[in-house]
Amino acid sequence: xxxxxxxxxxxxxxxxxxVFIPGGLSVSSGNGITWISQAWSLVKDKLGMWVLLNIIYLxxxxxxxxxxxxGLFAGALGPIFIGGIIAVCEKQRTTGQFELGLLFNGFQKxxxxxxxxxxxxxxxxxxxxxxxxxxxxxxxxxxxxxxxQGDISxxxxxxxxxxxxxxxxxxxxxxxxxxxxxxxxxxxxxxHNLKFGAAVSMSLEAVKKNLLPGxxxxxxxxxxxxxxxxxxxxxxxxxxxxxxxSYYSSYRNIFIGRENHPF
Length: 263
Known about the structure:
Layout: E1 18-20, H1 31-43, H2 47-65, H3 71-95, H4 111-149, H5 154-159, H6 161-182, H7 185-192, H8 196-209, H9 211-228, H10 236-255, E2 256-258
Antiparallel strand pairs: 1-2
């Protein structure tokens, strides 16, 4: 089923008519597209501000990543900023106002839980890389060393193709696990004050219920990204905020219902 569209008019969807659904709903596959359209309804109303927020967010994250030893730390900070973006979305939906300062709301509210979400995500990715190196064995290490020295050859890549594919698949599996545990967690922590453990558990439960809409969402957003990157990448200034706001729209579509409507 489709939950209500996001709307910047607080009188359209009164908060006292909404109920939180622990564990979330199982929605139809078409809702993966609905998440994008609902996100666009927020982004287009304050397009300039969302572009500005996206630029600030990218500058901060990229700035941290170019500093030695801070790249992984930047990854751990991701859910904290996502929590801030969730707060911006909630403010805009309920009041119609865009408050840029809420981008840093996660540093002031539920900081520890959000940081734990980021640390969990980074930890899983690191485990995935280690697993990929174990699966790939000496072949992966040899390729990495050769690429750093600049003497990697097409013949070497061809002979190592199956190993590279398997190692990439292993990393992909770990990435999916990290995404499932952390996708809904920032919204559940910021809006419902859930603790770290409850938030990641509930996020995983909701993702397992909605694998098809999630797959359709990522395929569609991936196509949007590719198209938006064509005109010198300028379209990414819109598609990236669209993706970030989808954290919020997907959360509301799955976890929020109406009191006077059957689930």
